[in-house]
Write a structure and sequence with these properties.
This protein is α+β, with helices and mostly antiparallel strands. It is built from 5 helices and 5 strands, in the order αααβββαββα. α4 packs antiparallel against α5.
Length: 149
């Protein structure tokens, strides 16, 4: 990455005429070009996890976070990981390298990417079914964890 690619001119043109002359479209600025490329995440909340998802390019990216109720690390790092692996492969009908999941210590969260799913017509509905399958698998585990803690 060059030094120029690391920085951006956020001042923009002084007026719309200058913007048109500089960028070729009325009212466009370099900052607008950058902010329009930032993925917008949709948040969902279930009993057994919280999540946010976005379609980034042709990839579905999902961040999974701990549920509101207190859970053990075994629940989150073992049982949820197993469910994410099993349900993810079944739902997306794929394995690695098309599916990738990683645990992040900094946020105590899971990062999941399904590559090449921009062809899904109703992504929200498709992912709702994925989340519901995860929820169905994790509710009994959560109930067991609650009884033993």
């Amino acid at each position: 990455m060059t030094e120029a690619e690391k920085s951006i001119d956020i001042s923009g043109p002084a007026n719309a005429g200058e913007a048109y002359a500089t960028y070729g479209t009325q009212g466009s600025t370099r900052l607008n070009d950058v902010t329009s490329s930032i993925p917008k995440f949709t948040k969902v909340e279930h009993t057994t996890f919280k999540a946010e998802y976005s379609l980034t390019g042709d990839n579905v990216v999902i961040h999974f976070y701990l549920p509101k109720r207190k859970v053990t690390q075994e629940y989150w790092k073992k049982y949820f990981a197993e469910a994410l692996n099993d349900i993810g492969q079944e739902h997306f009908q794929a394995t690695a390298p098309r599916l990738v999941a990683k645990y992040t210590d900094e946020l105590n969260s899971w990062w999941f990417k399904a590559q090449g799913y921009d062809h899904i017509i109703d992504l929200a509905k498709y992912l709702d079914r994925f989340f519901e399958a995860l929820e169905a698998r994790m509710v009994p585990v959560l109930q067991t964890q609650s009884r033993t803690s």
